[in-house]
Hints:
Blueprint: H1 5-10, H2 17-26, H3 33-45, E1 54-55, E2 59-60, E3 65-70, H4 77-92, H5 103-112, E4 115-120, H6 123-131, H7 136-146, E5 151-154, E6 160-163, E7 167-175, H8 176-182, H9 185-188, E8 197-200, H10 217-228, E9 236-239, H11 241-256, H12 266-284, E10 294-296, H13 298-318, H14 326-340, E11 344-345, H15 347-354, H16 358-371, E12 374-379, E13 382-387, H17 388-393
Parallel strand pairs: 3-7, 3-8, 4-7, 9-10
Antiparallel strand pairs: 1-2, 5-6, 11-13, 12-13
Helix pairs in contact: 2-3, 2-10, 3-4, 3-12, 4-10, 6-8, 11-12, 11-13, 12-13, 14-15, 14-16
Amino acid sequence: MPVTEAEAASVLPSSGWVRRYVIHAAKQTTAPLCYHIGIGLTTMGVTCPLSYGMHYAGTLRANNFCLLVGRSGEDNKSSALNVGREILDAAAAPLIGDFPGSPEGLIDSLAQTPSQLIPISEFGKFLSSAQRGYFEPTKTLLADLWDSLPIQRTRANNRVIRVDTPRLSINAACSIPYLEKHTLAEDWTGGFMGRWMVLYGRRERVDPDPVGDRTDFQWLVDRIQQKAMTPTAGWCMGLDSGAKRYWNQWYRDVTNRKLPNNIVGIRSRAPTIARKIALVYGWDFGPASYGKPWKMGIDVLEPAIAFTELHVKSLIDLSSVIAEHADARLRRSVLQAIDIKGGVATLGEVLGVLKMRKRPVVEMLDALMEEGCVVKVQTNFGNAYETKLHVSGL
């Protein structure tokens, strides 16, 4: 099941900008509450000074990639994105970046503004283009930017453009069919998609007249503006003793947890995501804003881990639509096409649903018959394919 409103509410910290942002956002749209937490974290994170971070398996920064996943037209993903964008636009508009048309364009943009948050309301189109190869170089670059690694490119006149301190955050929204069609297990087990904090929600609240309550808007804008103008932050020196005990227990649990094979890679990414979120909370209401070195305590670590568990839950729930390889995805698509036609479909009907070439579909149908998942039957329209589930149902 998707993340519920109650589960999302339970992971909110007791104070801070992110908490107040979520309360504000919930009054503007009926989008799932977990979406607002993710958007709030990336919005606060993009205001962190360039020098802010901690040592954790290298040097870690507070930028994040947030992916809202839900039903198309049902779960108000774009509305959730727009609430955060409106506040950031009013407080610090230069921090809002544009969707990258090319890797070169993104590097040039970050050379001008190293800290940016890019909102992408149609992330499914990006995945589709990347699968065809057009955006594949951009995916590779984004993976490096999540790690905040220095980047550079050489222009035609041999002039090198280099960005030593890129701090890119992304808020994106994607419908489930696009994830199913354009990502494979290899993308999640350590590749590009494994770097995203994924939030799979479903709208529970209904508001027939969503006029919105703007009571907190100006406070949220003023606070973000103040954060964006603060030039320094205290470097995080690691965990204090209480936080270290708490972290070690959770780390052993999450890295030994039994997970579906196609998303098992989140064991290694989840701890890094949790530390990134803890850095954001340290900047939001923790001691980082005092400008002195500090140690991370339970107050910022606990809500960060609790939120990361929503990410883990979301991916476990989405694992059923993430194919392990291309053949597995085609297999599922063919079975779904037959199911759409009531469990019995001719080859022409399957091709009509899938909009694919005949040969790979015929080969997959033959394989499914060998497995015993599909049987060939005679109908009034000639030969057809019937799923074993449908036959059992008779």
